[in-house]
Specification:
The protein has helices at residues 4-17, 27-30, 47-55, 74-80, 92-104, 129-137, 180-198, and strands at 22-25, 38-41, 60-65, 84-86, 108-112, 141-147, 165-169. Helix 5 (92-104) packs across helix 6 (129-137) and helix 6 packs across helix 7. It is built from seven helices and seven strands; from the N terminus they run αβαβαβαβαβαββα. The chain is an alpha/beta fold. A seven-stranded mixed beta sheet has the order 1-7-6-2-5-3-4, with helices on both faces.
């Protein structure tokens, strides 16, 4: 847990420093402290990373774009703590192997299902990666809705703005089988839970 608690403290202090209130809904209701999960969230902006790190309260690893290695402090910290970096040339089998190793080792994964930040704050199309990983590892998915972070740091903007953020945890979604139909089921159910909270059904 050497990388876990410092990350929580740093991210919570960042929210306090910029007076960003974060409301957490139903985490204790749905997240079992003795289990590990695949947390799947929507991606409104760069501040999502701070909010997830600070308030999920689970030791998890990210799957993140290789370009984030260049972000001061964050890139170095994530590289040294074994988060998984990917780019367009990363073989899928390598990504799956690394992710499954994390999950089998007792840690959770955190993945932004859209694969990139929203251009307008609206929920985008989900990619299958998170659900293929959950399917292969037979791990429970916890959908997470992030609201308000788009207004803090929209895509293409380098200036921080004030906005309250709400992090909503949804009921666990269990795997049903190990085939492609299970992947579609996981993706459909996860997106529906997030979309409902965002008012984008």
């Amino acid at each position: 847990n050497g990388d876990y608690y410092p990350a929580i403290i740093w991210c919570r202090l960042t929210c306090l420093l910029f007076f960003i209130p974060v409301k957490v809904v139903d985490r204790k209701k749905y997240v079992d402290k003795d289990k590990n999960y695949v947390f799947v969230a929507n991606h409104q902006g760069m501040f999502d990373v701070i909010v997830m790190y600070g308030y999920v309260m689970k030791n998890f690893k990210w799957i993140m774009k290789d370009s984030l290695r260049k972000v001061p402090l964050l890139g170095v910290a994530c590289a040294k703590t074994e988060h998984i970096f990917v780019n367009r040339t990363t073989p899928q089998k390598d990504l799956l192997r690394k992710a499954i190793k994390v999950l089998k080792g007792g840690k959770s994964m955190s993945i932004f299902a859209e694969g990139t930040r929203s251009d307008n704050g609206k929920l985008g199309r989900f990619k299958k990666g998170a659900f293929v990983i959950a399917n292969m590892a037979q791990k429970t998915i916890i959908p997470v809705s992030i609201q308000g972070s788009y207004d803090i740091l929209p895509k293409g903007c380098m200036c921080l703005h004030w906005s309250p953020v709400t992090l909503t945890f949804h009921a666990p979604i269990e795997c049903k089988g190990r085939d492609s139909e299970n992947v579609e089921y996981l993706m459909t159910e996860t997106r529906a839970a997030i979309a409902k909270t965002l008012g984008e059904e």
